[in-house]
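Q: What would this complex look like in 3D?
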Amino acid sequence: MTFLGWLTIFLFAGVLTAFAIPLGGYMAAVYSGERTLLDPVLRVPERLLYRVLRVHPERGQDWKAYAKSVIIFSLAGWLLLYLILRTQTLWDFTGLNPMGFHSAPWNVTFNTTSSFLTNTNWQYYGGETTMSYFSQMAGLTVQNFLSAGVGICVAIALIRGIIGRSGRSLGNFWQDLVRTLLYVLLPISVLVALVLVFQGSIQNFSHYLGFNGLTGLPQTIAMGPVASQEAIKLLGTNGGGFFNTNSAHPFENPSGFTNFVEMLAVLVIPASLVFCYGKMAGNRRQGYAIYSTMMIMFLGACIVAYIAEAHGSPAQHAAGLHTGVIAGSTGGNMEGKEQRFGIAGSAIFDVVTTVTSCGAVNSAIESFTGIGGAVPFANLSASEVIFGGVGTGLYSILLYVVLAVFIGGLMVGRTPEYLGKKIEAREIKLVVLGLLITPLAALFSTALATASHAGRASISAAATGPQGFSETFYAYLSQANNNGSAFAGYTGFIQPNAGNVGSHGITFADLLGGFTMLFARYAPILFALAVAGSLAGKRVSPAGLGTMRTDNPTFVVLLIGVIVLVGALTFFPALLLGPIVQGLTGHLY
Amino acid sequence: MKRDIITSAIGIVVLTLLCGILYPLVITGISQVAFPGNANGQQIKVNGKLVGSKIIGQQFATQAVKHGKPQVDNNGNPVTNPDPRYFQSRPSATVPPYNAAATAFSNLGPNNTATEQAIAANIQAYIALERPYVPGLTAAKVPVDAANSSASGVDPDISLANADIQAHRIAAVRHLPITQVQALISTHTHGRGLGFSGEPGVNVLALNLALDRLNGGQ
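A: Here is my prediction, written as structure tokens for the whole assembly.
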């Protein structure tokens, strides 16, 4: 461990907060229909889009109408993406398939389509050996925008339900979606993409470069429109890499500086949404309380991961390596890590992308030490409410807030209220269902994949002992939480060699994963919207002496307690069998 | 319902054009004008011939020849020996090493014997190459980045500690004063992002090119 490593963690937290507060205010203005900085530029295209889409933005939708729009729009997106990916060679006339890649088979495409639709970006394919530039742009990049947009819309709808003073309207889905894309995601993506190219990312449509290197050995370098996809992949907490090795690839993440920028891009919208919520609720302290909860858990995860990775792995020690800091090297577990990021840059990036639903990686999570690897497990087990995915993080933690209010209410013996609205049996039922459905999907799928021969076929040969279980558990935990990071030895798509002719999928893993992602994305969205609908119509009663406050440190402690308790009770037995066993023994398997 | 279906159908097409065609084209346009070098992969040419990308690592090795025939392994990939005249990059898990058309992690777990064996093999290869020039080099003195495979498989950098050990071999093989090699190393070392983010690294391709220029100039 080094001083600069620790400094990076805390500086990052500070810079993130400094960006998130103003952006949160801006987003509150965007969703409240107030004038914003970008109005003069964007008003015209916004109106144009409404006209083309035949949308009447002033027409409010109740929760059922809002949910119907979300589901039908997602279905349309699924169909188009599947079609584009399966007809890859049909688009060769655009010149955007210079390597002549064929479509991946139906089972992998089913998984990939479901994965990008649900903001998961689980990848059973290698980008540079499977996808044409056209598929990456018109297929995957588009869903990077839209799945993120849908997540934000649901969060905004839930906020409106909680703070709504009149009627049952949660706003208009189409208006929220258009404004999210035009006012938030596109402008920031352009900015991030240009910073990345400025720092060394590539952005072209060239044929792959083939040449002989300095000593005469042949090398081929994959090219493509990388920066544009990288920017929204991070900003929308999507995480699907242009290349197989994701943000570890020098073209996706060229330097220590871009690594910092990329981590900021991942967390800035989830963090801003919390401040946006405080502002929209007319009580900024509510936002600060939730933000503190998230930040405390985030810093805890960073600290544990950094210490564990800096310590090195049992395999390194058995091979005789010294893993301490020496002159010119920071030591630590450098298996599957890049020199320019080092231990701290890899450990923090890993925490950033697993607390959110991003799932991008700049190092191989499978090669993390037992305890270092247990950190992403724990982040996923907390159902991604520590900042969480864009939108999904906020609506999930708001469900936890309601649950904490309910438990707090039981403890003091009063009818629980949140922001003046009574929390009753119906809301609590919906909240608990919304919170437990993701763990249920994760554990059920893991059990199925562990118990069946077809499921075990995906485990990599080198993953002996508990590592094999960790691979499986992580795969379904990640897909159920719509994260998308992987213990990447777990395979669903076998590519015999470069080029994907003759490739095939492990249909069991492809399908189980695909269904897990779809179920664990849309079921919680429906429950969150139902909670919003149920709260929207409620009368607000003024706060009295006995009202439990939800904006002070006591509540932050209660909220952390509830999140940890639910996560631990659900996942602890499974965690013990995998990463914790490995972390506690120095034993090799 | 019907209204939702119509709006969704139009919406997905229009938004695909906006986010999937227009947005990448705009970024490409600006990048190609403002940062053409970066946008096209920082290609390095020697005498007009492409030899690599500055930020993609490569393998500095030569193909093994037996009985006048270049050797290949069971999968048809060339069998190589490190070229002692050059600084060596980190171990790579791609097939063949430094395959920038199909990048891959090693995915070796922290507690697996397969991992220990891979690391031990890397250490052995490193010691075999460097010990003649650095007497007393043991496993415990091998820098971790030289023994562990990188994430991308095409890591362009090595650590300073790693470069300092290899400097002795380079100086001896190329008949250069060690101080001159060390000076070249520091010229091709990049610092941390913003002074704190990430770790310093030595760009191996740039360093090796500089060595060739030096020898060519003598």
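A: To summarize the key features: Chain B has a mean pLDDT of 94. Chain B touches chain A through 115 residues (CB under 8 Å).
Q: Very helpful, thank you.
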